[in-house]
Amino acid sequence: MIEAPAPLPAQDAVVPRGEALRLGLRANPLMTVGAVLCLVVVVVAVFAPLLAPYPADAGSATHPFAVLKAPSSLHWFGTDNVGRDILSRVIFGARVSPVVAVLVLVIACGIGIPLGVVAGYFGGWLDEVIMRVTDIFLAFPPLLLALALAAVLPPSLTSLVIAIAVTWWPWYTRLIRGHAASVAGRPYVESFLFL
Hints:
Number of helices: 8
Largest sheet: none
Strand content: under 5%
Number of strands: 0
Number of domains: 1
Helix content: 55-70%
Structural class: mainly alpha
Mean pLDDT: 88
């Protein structure tokens, strides 16, 4: 008996972009939860003036007769030491937190990635100097270092971003250095240099 030839393996079908996202979210439930939480923070930040029960309390309003009230139906999170509604301040804080996070990541990656590439690719004394400076920053607890820098810098959002970014860049430098060092000796990198 003659067997029929086996069909050629089908090439991977191109999955539409939305379908690939849906499959990825279904395969990873933790990513789905994280995406939903990020979406909630963005929605709360956009609609903060509508969601906050006391929008004026997000600014400099004071209520001397409502100081340090316990959580209640009027103030779900209670009030602070000048009588402002804490829930309103948390909701308006959702506008600042994502901006700070993005700026810190941009600055930390802008410092850490180039230093890691230089250290991993060139090696030698340059790698030693960059990695020892990185080790010095990593020797201090990040929160303690950020607090010390924030105490020295003038109080502002820019100072906060700088203080946090200074504690984050060493992690990116170390990670990228390892990847760059593993790729630096491969033949395709060496052949590129001779082009």
